[in-house]
Design a protein that fits this description.
about 25% strand
């Protein structure tokens, strides 16, 4: 069963286990899983970067901060 776009899950987090992002393309969803030591910080930065693309642009460019959290 397919959900309408506004009901699809884009992000999720389990602080002990990591977080995931889902990309929806024509050939179906792709789930990207991330297992990091700083899961909550990484998730927050990625979420803010995603939300930034949906609305007006805030003064911070979150993408470079996201890269500093990579192990």
């Amino acid at each position: 069963m397919e959900l309408p776009e506004i009901q699809q899950i884009d992000f999720g987090i389990a602080v002990d286990d990591g977080y995931f992002e889902v990309e929806y393309k024509n050939d179906g969803p792709t789930v990207n899983r991330f297992f990091k030591k700083r899961v909550l910080a990484s998730f927050l930065i990625r979420l803010l970067a995603h939300l930034q693309k949906l609305g007006t642009v805030p003064a911070i460019d979150y993408e470079p901060y996201s890269k500093t959290l990579d192990d």
